[in-house]
Design a protein that fits this description.
3 domains, 17 helices, TIM Barrel, EC 3.5.4.2, adenine deaminase activity, adenine deaminase, 9-stranded mixed beta sheet, single chain, Adenine_deam_C, hydrolase
């Protein structure tokens, strides 16, 4: 089915009819299947016929021909639709292929993905070729189109141009515009962004907001501009405000915002007992967050926190499919839908023992299957990070800025006045201030400052894992920072920790320096190792991976390090520009 996306050709549709007419056998027959019927909101027992990747019949009848058909008696199990993650960032050390393979084994068989990394790292032709390749995997992959880079790029218009936005919005795998991290620009009069929103709405595609802390008036304005949903509610009152303004709301449970239990408690206290416009999302967390599963974990949390069982499943299936107008394909078990089905021991246990994705077993009786072929990453432009430039210890490691950056939590940073002596080769371990550098991946510019609150015993640290793909260097000892940087170059990208001239930890990211080609279980081990090393050296927050990614993102307060320099988010000004090398 690689030629097109679920618009079955006439030939295929005729074959489906032949199965019903008894002229052709289904490929898979599920008998005595107790399944969740969302139309009736009941558990119903039926027989399910599957041909290729499609459910061709659900009912009491059995097929006339079963030659070569696999027959599975589902007695003792309950079946639910494959789960949908409505807000995936599939580039958090893992890559879209490895992430989808991993999450499908936990029953999440449809992902709606951020395209920001593809915009920043690949040209349009390569990106669309990559999307086409991902049609061949068992997981159903959809995307959204960014209208802003959520940072200050030197040449943002070359990445997010009118022609690029139009082409992405027209792509059949793209379901929405957004997320609108740059919404203040829209309120300030950015008519190009407003035009893109209008284009998305004209194409019957959704607009997702990103409105943390937004007032009722702001939410109303953004609804008038065209926003349809938001995933940034952090209290029950914020959920209520969004629902009252007509939004659909994603309730988040992520590595830095594990809000779901609190949100459910508070919305129940407010009397909210209707769930049709509520979704669940993990909001693109790092690998270790998914060690126990994906959307199945959130469904279980919802059930444990008072959501009726059927509504809990609907919040990760049909609610999302209806919202995106893909319920003719996903989100329920019914004739004509894609054969994404999870097999459970009972309705209270959302973690599946077996999983069908596009009619293929990706997990069978607790054992994950290896079905999809490897990705030829270089073919799509995901080469190793090659840095053909050097850092000079004397010239590049000068720190003379009057103020630095202080971490308030995992992702929020504020300015602070530097009081320590930064003119030496090392900073004392008695305080939590480190040298900090952001360097262009092409080696053309740099910005040096001091970072407070990241660690107090970290000698040298280098990472190519950033929101823009540029290089971050942190540490107490300039020589160890250089050691870590040089090792990161040798790896072809990644995260490296050095201490007194030795490499003590590394996480290679060989796909353009921002993603690994390893499996998610392997990455979980490597990420946990890096996190442990950082914690031992004074990192006191929950998620250093998010910290690295968000140093440059200007949709969060208060001060950011960007390609244009040290940036004041609230006043939208560059405080200190980058220095050309």
């Amino acid at each position: 089915m690689s030629e097109q996306r679920y618009r079955w050709k006439n030939k295929h549709l005729r074959e489906h009819i032949e199965v019903l007419d008894g002229q052709r056998a289904p490929h898979l027959l599920l008998t005595n299947a107790t399944y969740l019927n969302q139309t009736m909101r009941q558990w119903i027992t039926a027989n399910i016929w599957i041909y290729d990747d499609r459910i061709v019949y659900v009912g009491n009848n059995l097929p006339e021909i079963t030659d070569g058909c696999e027959v599975v008696d589902c007695t003792g199990q309950v079946l639910v639709p494959g789960y949908i993650e409505p807000h995936a960032h599939p580039f958090q050390l893992y890559n879209p292929h490895s992430f989808s393979r991993y999450t499908s084994s936990f029953g999440t068989t449809t992902l709606i993905n951020d395209n920001l990394l593809l915009l920043l790292q690949l040209n349009k032709k390569k990106a669309f070729s990559f999307l086409r390749e991902l049609r061949n995997i068992p997981t159903s992959m959809y995307w959204w189109m960014r209208f802003d880079s959520q940072t200050e790029l030197n040449e943002e218009e070359s990445f997010i141009s009118h022609s690029a936005v139009k082409s992405w919005l027209e792509h059949d795998a793209v379901l929405q515009g957004g997320e609108l991290t740059g919404w203040p620009r829209l309120l300030a009069g950015d008519d190009m962004m407003l035009h893109w929103i209008q284009e998305a709405k004209r194409m019957r595609k959704k607009i997702e907001g990103h409105f943390p802390g937004a007032s009722e008036k702001t939410l109303a304005k953004m609804m008038l501009f065209g926003a349809d949903s938001d995933h940034e509610a952090m209290t029950g009152d914020e959920v209520m405000n969004r629902l009252l303004q007509g939004y659909s709301v994603s309730l988040r449970y992520s590595s830095i915002r594990p809000d779901l239990p609190k949100l459910l408690q508070e919305i129940h206290e407010l009397g909210i007992d209707q769930y049709d416009h509520l979704f669940l999302t993990t909001d693109g967390s790092p690998p270790s967050f998914y060690e126990q599963g994906c959307m199945d974990v959130l469904i279980k949390l919802a059930i444990e926190n008072g959501v009726p069982i059927i509504d809990a499943y609907n919040m990760a299936t049909v609610n999302i499919a209806r919202y995106y107008n893909i319920d003719h394909l996903h989100g329920n078990i019914a004739t004509g839908r894609v054969a994404n089905i999870n097999f459970l021991t009972d309705a209270m246990s959302p973690a599946p023992v077996s999983v069908l994705a596009k009619g293929q077993w990706v997990k069978r009786d607790g054992v994950s299957m290896e079905l999809d072929r490897p990705i030829s990453w270089q073919e799509f432009g995901f080469d190793r990070l090659e840095l053909d430039w050097q850092l000079d210890l004397a010239e590049d490691f000068e720190f003379s800025m009057p103020f630095g950056i202080e971490m308030m939590n995992n992702v929020i940073t504020k300015p602070y006045s530097i009081a320590c002596d930064v003119g030496n080769e090392e900073l004392p371990f008695e305080h939590d201030e480190c040298f900090f550098m952001l360097i262009d991946r092409e080696g053309k510019w740099r910005i040096n400052t001091i970072l407070k609150g990241f660690a107090n015993r970290l000698c040298g640290f280098a990472a190519s894992y950033t929101s823009t793909g540029d290089i971050i260097l942190i540490g107490k000892r300039k020589k160890d920072i250089l050691v870590a940087f040089n090792r990161m170059k040798e790896l072809g990208g990644g995260i490296v920790i050095a201490e007194y001239g030795e490499i003590i930890g590394e996480l290679p990211l060989v796909l353009r320096g921002v993603m690994s080609d390893k499996s998610v279980p392997e990455l979980i081990q490597e990420e946990n190792w890096i996190k442990q090393l950082l914690k031992e050296r004074g990192y006191r927050f929950a998620d250093p991976i998010y910290t690295l990614q968000f140093f440059s993102t200007t949709h969060l307060p208060y001060i950011r390090v960007t390609q244009r320099g040290l940036y004041d988010v609230m006043n939208k000004t560059v405080l200190f520009p980058t220095i050309m090398r």
